[in-house]
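Re: the multi-chain job from yesterday

Posting the exact lines I submitted so nobody has to dig through the queue logs.
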Amino acid sequence: MSSFEQLKQTFFDECGDLLQQIENGLTEIREGTQSEDTINAVFRAVHSVKGGAGIFGFETLVGFAHVFETVLDAMRSDKLAVTPDNVDLMLASSDVLTDLVNMSRAGETPPADHGSECRTGLQALMGGSDDEVVAGDGHAAADFDIAFTPVQIDLDEGIGDPVVYEITFKPGPEMLKKGSDPLNIIRELRQLGELELTADVGALPDMSAIAVDKPCVSWTGKLKTTRPQAEIEGVFDFVADDCEFSIVNTAPPPPPLVIEAAPLPVVDNAPSLAPAGDKPKAAGKADAPAGEGKPQKAAATTTRVELEKIDRVVNMVGELVIAQAMLGQIVHELPEHVSARLQQTLDEVVHHTRELKDGVMSMRAQPVGAVFQRMPRLVRELSVKTAKKVRLEMAGENTEVDRSIVEQLSDPLTHIIRNSMDHGIESPADRISAGKNEEGTIRLSASHRGGRIVIEISDDGAGINSDRVLKKAREKGLVAADATLTEDEINNLVFMPGFSTAETVSDISGRGVGMDVVRRNIQDIGGRISLKSERGRGMTIQLALPLTLAVMDGMVIRVGRETYVVPMSAMVECLRPPRSDIHDLVGTRGMLKLRGELLPIVDLGDLLDVKASDSEGGVVIITEAGEDIRFGLRVDELCGHQQVVIKSIEESYGSIPGISAATILGNGRVAFILDTEKLYEMAGVPPAAVAAAKLEASTVRH
Amino acid sequence: MPLASTLKVLIVDDQNSVRQMTRMTLEELGITLVHEAENGVGAFQTATLQPIDLIISDYNMPEMDGLALLRAVRGHAAIRKLPFILLTGRGDRELVVKAAQAGVNNYLVKPFTTATLREKIEQVIGKLT
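And the result, structure tokens for all chains:
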């Protein structure tokens, strides 16, 4: 990539932030939560997009940004009223601007009439004037037609008023030994301005006692110069450790810089930073670092790193985890008197690797707010379209999750909220007659729960109409005509492929993308989706997502001669149940009675067609497969808990039922990571059996 | 006549891409001693602590804009004659008038070519060698 192309890339990255600022600012203004500076910040952002676009030659972008900016300028100088209509037009304009940036980024030439509706609207606000000329012609800009004479400066004369510095200079014994001549220092000082020095010869011994390599003269005096203090200090750079010197500005300190609303970081307490009673040398130096030593401002403490670079580190950490697992295996095979100390060190390495992993992952982490931010806009637009009154509440926007997950959350969230707006929340009239507040509420929240991030979208609408869902499912043949389902099971039918309840497809939800796609999206990133609905009271959709997609904690298990990994996050407990606790029940492969509850048992060997070595005994892992679904997974042996690196196999092998990914174990062999939810589906435990078991369990209890 | 290779220039702009672009253009002129600042506050600190020969500053920045920086520089005895070139956008005509009143040495309209940049610098500090 040429450096010009790289700069373009930098510009587009900046545009991402700027566009977000524009949208956030406008949203605040629309909701009336803005501060005084909000409109200025929006203006600045649009202006920056325009400026950069001009430099890189994106003229359509410059043209549109210019019109947009002109209107914002009028708005911030109170020449244009801030009405909801005007702000909506601004929001639409910000969309057009985003489109234009994206097109420019993709290397497409935006059609000349793109966003012309918005543009016309903006121009109408400004009274129809359109100063095309200013918008740019693709070449370097010309000067303005004003009388301006550049002001010449002779740099040799200095750039400020001369300042008098008091200088002391006392060469140390090391100076001559190292071959530095004190006179050179004085000559250099003289070049900076008018120098008056007095030599202090009081320490000069008798002629006979003078040593050639021992300086005895020191100097004090004044230097009148226009050069900055740093340059005077620079003269002493090479001898700073071998002499004592001080440079003190005798001029009164300049008046402090006053900036409205953004004060300069305090610099005038510099002297207090110098330790009391320190050598003059240190005192002289204390002036300079006082300003530098303090963080200039929050923005300067962050740095942009290409995602690719972080990904490379993530991969290396992955490899490190594998190498470490191999090392562990080798240590394990050594005789104990050798391995004991090695094991201790290895444990430390494991600990550090885990911290390293967490550190790198936190670099990739991003607050979910990045996605949440887009939702208020969506809700506002939809409430206009559907003529429903809806308030969006958000909580936990700062919850952090891996960037790749944040990116993939946008579509599912949008879809779920569309669904809530379209099917969930009732019209104001219906709500009033149902005794509810006219205004509906959609609540979006995120939180960390047990190594996962949980996102909940709930509304206080009508909930799922289970009669209609069941009818529909029967019509489509998704459910047998005589099956009896619980309310929850019926509600979960909306996740079935090919299911859509909207009688007529509206342009809001139901664009052929059903909840099954949402579920697929969530599952693709290792998440789970669940739904709770209460008729007439509303519904809640919960997304439980992993924090990262790269490394996870897993339990290595064995069935027959095969080794698999069960994600720790799906495991509840492990046990070796006595035969008497396993009950046969028609239609199941056995039910385990655990603390008065009956859980279906699924034999992993049977499911994956692997010959188990011990079909009777073995270990049962109580596993979670979604909200409120637990089952026992029978395996031969637990081999140990370890961190595993997730290697996707979908690209090469497609989707394999029951397997979510692969990993490399300590012995260098590949093991599959199990998808417990899918395994449960594959086992085909009939819901009726579970229901019957629950019933039986309760009768047993009574 | 100022020597391009020893000229110390401070670029002030909140956009990294614009700073880098300006830096590249300066390098084409043989000016390689370049400092950068993201806004007026950082620029003012740099200008008072480091030996700087020329400021090229954008106007439109958060915290402290280019005009405020210009006024701060002109108000500080040790650097009050520091050459200052203001970067403006097309259409910022009135801004240049204000900047001239505040004592700007020259202005430069974005986007600009290497030749224009050289011309604008030379109009202020003399021919670059």
